[in-house]
């Protein structure tokens, strides 16, 4: 007796095989299923979504924190005692983790779009867990050691918000294809209603979000103030060793209008320039005075300080990844740098008639000049020949005495106070970190004739935001970069921005309606053609996978012979 099994015809679905195979190791047709996803796998989908969201925020944070990478590395140096670029492994792992999780998210969305059961492979579950835990540990670490840097997120959103909104709107509009497909396939009305309401709530939130987006660069271009002055923070430390004559010369070549320096005083009373408490990071004190390498810089005399090389470390550590681009002449000049005195800096400033911001550091308690360091520094400034009106004095110690001796100094505070308090104290300027004031405070200080200088501003986007806000000056480690910013990166009137986001909302709404109508049309058409169950493989993959007839595998009839009883 011969039994005939019906002829089966199927198409190769390489795209679907790759999607289900990579996501859940379901490469074979019989391994795939259109059944509802289990609760356990739904939980893992939520974990994947949460990990993706957290990594998105973490990646955005480090992308915008580029302005302060040097500050972060300096924090690491203070904790470890060794200079390393700690941002490199963080950026590498963040990029790898985000790429991996984003890829899994795309595969999960493809499963949903094609009606396939979600079943994340156990190896991916380990990877998602590792990514989640690593990101959480990173967030906790930053929160403990670099808390102030979280402010970069709301500040940067003033620059990126309008554009991120359009990107989010485009993504939400694209997701309508998947949402509409789910609604069309659903058999329960309650499920359809819940999905549609949730999606429309998100979409409506994105439509009205621009009402809450604020940016100083959304303004009448005619009211834009003049370009902020740029001060060289420790000279031009991205191009030459910080606080050296070569660094200040490089800053002058970038057309800065002022120079900012950290001033300490030697054990024999010579004010000199040094940012750190010790000499280890920026000199070769380990080689010249190995037994004094951890001694405070203020305990060295000027003769000893002049024996130290202050440029060799820059070529060795390459803190800003710029040493490789230096010419041989520049490298030779760098190797010749010594610790710079305040007198040398002031003479240079006097020759070029530019402003100097003096940031003093008090010597240790038992230092010979602990009680007279202000007088010693003040005398050097007065003997330099630099006009008093070009000196920004930032130290609060003995400020009243300083005002009597040098009434022409621009008295500047490092602590934020109200304009009334500053005026009553005879203070005309503020020197603050860029995250310590908002746009309204900047406007208030400007109206009250308080000169506001913000540090450290290295990125064009941040410089542009502060320019739009009306800041009078910024202190930068990258004057060569800001030099290339002749105008704010973007600037638009409120009316123009309103036109853009309303147009984007209308286009998005029209596309979403069109997609829902199209999906329902397909559903009705297939039901009328006799297909009882909506199989997304038949509809969606038919457009994505085009194969010729010769690529169709035809299963031959199986002839099963069974012996007849005799």
TrEMBL record:
GO cellular component terms given for this protein: plasma membrane
Chief location: membrane
Name under which the protein is recorded: Glycerophosphodiester phosphodiesterase domain containing 5
One GO-annotated biological process of the protein: lipid metabolic process
Membrane disposition: Multi-pass membrane protein
Similarity comment text for this entry: Belongs to the glycerophosphoryl diester phosphodiesterase family.
Span of domain GP-PDE: 228-486
Cross-referenced Gene3D superfamilies: Phosphatidylinositol (PI) phosphodiesterase
Keywords: Glycoprotein, Hydrolase, Membrane, Transmembrane, Transmembrane helix
Transmembrane segments: 42-63, 90-114, 126-143, 163-183, 190-213, 499-518
Organism: Poecilia reticulata
GO molecular function (one): glycerophosphodiester phosphodiesterase activity
Cell compartments where the protein resides: Membrane
InterPro entries: GP_PDE_dom, PLC-like_Pdiesterase_TIM-brl
């Amino acid at each position: 007796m011969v039994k005939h099994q019906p002829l089966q015809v199927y198409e190769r679905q390489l795209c679907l095989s790759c999607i289900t195979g990579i996501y859940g190791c379901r490469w074979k047709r019989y391994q795939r299923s259109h059944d509802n996803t289990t609760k356990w796998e739904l939980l893992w989908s939520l974990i994947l979504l949460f990990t993706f969201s957290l990594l998105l925020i973490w990646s955005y944070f480090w992308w915008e924190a580029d302005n302060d990478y040097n500050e972060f590395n300096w924090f690491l140096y203070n904790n470890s005692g060794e200079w390393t670029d700690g941002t490199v492994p963080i950026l590498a792992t963040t990029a790898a983790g985000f790429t991996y999780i984003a890829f899994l998210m795309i595969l999960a969305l493809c499963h949903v779009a094609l009606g396939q059961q979600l079943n994340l492979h156990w190896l991916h579950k380990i990877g998602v867990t590792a990514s989640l835990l690593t990101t959480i540990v990173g967030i906790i670490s930053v929160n403990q050691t670099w808390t102030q840097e979280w402010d970069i997120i709301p500040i940067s959103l003033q620059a990126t918000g309008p554009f991120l909104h359009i990107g989010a709107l485009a993504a939400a509009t694209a997701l309508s294809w998947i949402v509409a497909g789910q609604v069309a396939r659903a058999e329960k009305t309650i499920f359809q209603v819940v999905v549609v309401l949730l999606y429309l709530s998100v979409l409506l939130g994105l439509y009205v979000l621009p009402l809450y987006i604020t940016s100083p660069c959304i303004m009448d271009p005619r009211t834009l103030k003049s370009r902020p002055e740029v001060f060289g923070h420790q000279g031009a430390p991205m191009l030459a060793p910080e606080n050296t004559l070569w660094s200040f010369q490089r800053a002058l070549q970038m057309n800065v209008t002022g120079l900012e320096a950290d001033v300490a005083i030697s054990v024999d009373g010579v004010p000199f320039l040094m940012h750190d408490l010790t000499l280890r990071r920026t000199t070769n004190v380990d080689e010249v005075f190995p037994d004094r390498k951890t001694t405070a810089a203020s305990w060295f005399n000027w003769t000893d300080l002049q024996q130290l090389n202050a440029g060799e470390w820059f070529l060795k550590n390459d803190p800003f990844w710029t040493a490789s681009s230096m010419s041989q002449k520049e490298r030779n000049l760098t190797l010749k740098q010594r610790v710079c005195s305040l007198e040398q800096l002031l003479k240079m400033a006097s020759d070029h008639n530019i402003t100097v911001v003096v940031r003093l550091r008090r010597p240790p308690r038992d230092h010979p000049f602990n009680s007279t360091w202000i007088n010693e520094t003040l005398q050097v400034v007065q003997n330099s020949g630099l006009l008093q009106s070009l000196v920004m004095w930032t130290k609060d110690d003995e400020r009243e005495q300083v005002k009597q001796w040098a009434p022409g100094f621009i008295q500047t505070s490092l602590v934020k106070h109200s304009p009334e308090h500053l005026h009553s104290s005879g203070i005309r300027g503020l020197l603050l970190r860029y995250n310590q004031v908002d746009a309204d405070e900047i406007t208030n200080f400007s109206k009250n004739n308080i000169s506001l200088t913000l540090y450290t501003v290295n990125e064009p986007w941040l410089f542009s935001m502060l320019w739009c806000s009306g800041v009078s000056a910024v202190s930068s480690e990258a004057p060569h970069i800001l030099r290339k910013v002749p105008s704010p990166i973007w600037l638009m009137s409120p009316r123009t921005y309103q036109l853009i986001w309303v147009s984007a909302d209308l286009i998005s709404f029209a596309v979403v309606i069109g997609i829902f109508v199209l999906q329902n049309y397909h559903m009705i058409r297939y039901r009328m053609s006799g297909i009882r169950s909506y199989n997304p493989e038949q509809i969606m993959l038919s457009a994505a996978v085009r194969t010729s007839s010769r690529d169709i595998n035809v299963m031959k009839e199986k002839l099963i012979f069974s012996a007849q009883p005799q």
